[in-house]
Design goal:
Largest interface: A-B, 41 and 41 residues
Radius of gyration of chain A: 20 Å
Helix content of chain A: 25-40%
Distance between the termini of chain A: 32 Å
Oligomer: homodimer
Number of helices of chain A: 12
Number of strands of chain A: 11
Strand order of the largest sheet of chain A: 7-8-6-9-10-11
Order of helices and strands of chain A: EHEHEHEHEEHEHHEHEHEHEHH
Largest sheet of chain A: 6 strands, parallel
Structural class of chain A: alpha/beta
Strand content of chain A: 15-25%
């Protein structure tokens, strides 16, 4: 468990896009973000209070979060000076980069000396079990996509926020590095060894109250040649009661696969439901979440109305319209 | 690449069942097994020549293969004495156990001193790429099962042997530890990190002659809650032109999952074909391989005839009837 509140470290980020991970924390868990730390030359700005390490400690910050994509893929010497200062001042350090804190001997040494922890959120923190497929109590909702990066995390987070607002019992279950930094814990599923993927998802979504919903962050797509195995483990390990179909209508081909077109939402519905019913025969497709950011308001609304008429389940863009109707659809499950 | 010929090390195995992995090598690659090494008290016997380490070296053996499941799951001190003698005498050592040779400092030291290699066949030997889904030349056949351990490896090996006998171009592509020891190389798919599973299968089955067949060893089952993600990576990374459905008709429930019944062969056909056609729209289901070892000859033949009439494709038990008809079915693909 990564302890909040966080100091969001933006390093020498060239723009706000490089700080996307930190922006995710601001968007979804603003109360966890006490301030930002920007080095000289940093062009990103999250619009929250700038803090030195000492100011952060005084404000009760527990963890410095590296929330930025670094240039050249390395943890630079300039960064390290700040990270070591943070460790010595009593903060933990968490990082979502491919490059790992634990591979930097000077950071490891500083953390040991200070008695602080380094969290590499792409590294599985425990040895997960093999999945046992046993029916668990409580309810689970999984977002599945026609492609990668179509808004599955956004959908789960928006539904979770809406359910909390309505006083429903719900937990967001993170399966990727950005989700883990937002939630403070989770399973970095794409880094888990094959045999233990479904078991990791079972571990993440244990028995719960009968009226509690896990909102499970999806990964990949059953139709994506590179990552479909990861998605399959989510479908079978997650034992979903409800599926939300996620789609981005303007994408010309599968992400990273120029030879592959996206499946239709009907194809996704049929394939995902058939597979989910292997572990939960009662599973239903509850609704459709469409990322319409590249469409005009009028086009988006027309598209959604048409889709809803065609498929007979609620179709919404939670960014434009909120996640209320998706949450209400769960009540029918 | 693990170099043949092998000396099969049976340790102090209590019976032939414990030496199942060595038996697989005897069954499928007898020319690679120069002899067996049995310690005092060993109750297993493969029926091949007993050899000392010195005799094995004199006979041209290159690798000592630990082909036995050990008691208590550890590499015992008694074993180590023999393994170190083998390394010092100039042999490599290969091992398919969960316990790894590389975790034993005295073995590592002996191998380094002697300039020999330790092969832990459950450990991926290279960093596999992310799958790119690009269409490859050559043909590929994948065995998929209604469950784990229904005869997928046996089916691929039997088809491969039959194709070699007929002078066809074919390669067995191993994806598990037993298959890797039989073939001398392959991908230990269940130990690969999630994001790289499909890429590992692409790596294993590269471009080839137009009339060359890869016979890909299957793993798990699309219907097995614990391992379906691994199977999915085989279906999408393997880009099969032909699927062979594998089944064991007397099994009361899915292996290790007492709450799950097996799917029908029709269900397997429909789900596996739909998923395979995502990466290869021309993929077909070529035939059915049934493990009838728990049925009488008469019952087995009646079952197969009935199945063939019902599903309209060849249905055979390659152990009873040979793999000829399955190989012929590939010609129609």
């Amino acid at each position: 468990m990564i302890q909040a509140p966080y100091l969001l470290f933006l390093g020498d980020a060239p723009d706000n896009l490089a700080a996307k991970m930190a922006q995710g924390i601001i968007d979804w868990r603003p109360e966890a973000a006490a301030g930002q730390y920007r080095m000289e030359g940093c062009k990103a700005n999250l619009g929250i209070k700038d803090m030195t390490i000492q100011e952060a400690v005084a404000a009760g910050v527990k963890t410095l979060v590296v929330g930025v994509v670094n240039r050249g893929g390395i943890i630079s010497q300039g960064w390290k000076t700040v990270l070591i200062e943070a460790l010595e001042a009593g903060l933990d350090v968490a990082c979502g980069l491919h490059n790992q804190l634990r591979d930097e001997p000077d950071l490891v040494e500083a953390a040991e000396k200070a008695g602080r922890s380094l969290f590499d959120v792409r590294v599985p923190p425990v040895q997960y079990p093999v999945a046992n497929g046993k029916k668990r109590t409580g309810k689970r909702c999984l977002a599945v996509g026609t492609d990668c990066s179509v808004g599955k995390m956004y959908t789960a987070l928006a539904m979770h926020r809406e359910m909390e607002k309505r006083g429903m019992k719900a937990t967001f279950r993170a399966t990727g590095q950005c989700g883990i930094l937002i939630e403070g814990n989770g399973v970095p599923l794409d880094a888990v060894v094959a045999d233990f993927m479904a078991g990791a998802v079972e571990y993440l979504t244990p028995n719960n109250d009968a009226d509690h919903w896990d909102l499970i962050e999806g990964q990949g797509s059953l139709f994506h040649a590179s990552y479909s195995g990861v998605t399959m483990a989510l479908v079978h390990g997650g034992q979903p009661d409800a599926l939300i179909l996620c789609h981005e209508p303007t994408r010309p081909h599968m992400r990273g696969l120029p030879d592959y077109t996206l499946p239709s939402l009907e194809d996704l519905r049929d394939v995902a439901l058939r597979l989910a019913q292997v572990v939960n025969p009662a599973c239903k497709v509850a609704g459709i979440s469409v990322n319409t950011q590249h469409m005009s308001e009028a086009d988006a609304l027309a598209y959604l109305a048409d889709l809803e008429a065609r498929m007979g389940i609620p179709a919404v863009d939670p960014f434009r319209q909120g996640a209320g109707r998706l949450v209400e659809a769960l009540a029918c499950i």
